[in-house]
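Input.
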Amino acid sequence: MDAKDLKPASDHAKIYGCKAIIYGAPGSAKTPLINTAPRPILLACETGLLSMRNSNVPTYLATTTQLIDEFFKWFLNSNESKNYDTLCIDSASQLADIYLQAAMNGTSSSGKKVHGLAAYGEMATSVMGHLRPLYYMAQKHAYVICKQNVENGMSRPFFPGNQLNVDVPHLYDFILHLGIKNVPGAGQVKAFQCNETFDVLARNRTGNLLDYEPPHFGQLVQKAMT
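Output.
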């Protein structure tokens, strides 16, 4: 390399988009808020899409490891994916469970039936094999839905096993908790919680989001990227 390869840090910061984990209690409207994302495409790993019954968001239903692998191969490599700005996954928790069940049943890509820690290790490797390249994909936002786990009084995104509960939250720029919040000046309203409190895990790497932001992912992206 030489000096001409150097660019302002801001150039690198903006090229990779807004990569976010969205989690909350069941019924908190995580899925229908996909409609507010910039030019979204949805990878649905579970069939409970009733809340999207009036939506026209392009959706690929993938409830097996083979279909999930096929989708990511297309999305990461096809010029057609340039038609979409935001990849939405509903949900990454279910996606991980699909890989876990496949490992234990011998239907994963390895074709080997494994149990215990080996099954969880194979699952974690497969999931990160998709979520890590997505994080580093340029010119793309990510709206990654997770189920909620409450442990020792702290709400956080849920993944089966231990490894993904460390690796995924550590990687992504935003961890947003969706729910009814006591917002100063507005009362109890639905909002994204963007900064951590003693009872809710949240992250806002840009530092320019308020503690609570309106439940509109497109607006949040626009604010985070400025």
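The radius of gyration is 18 Å.
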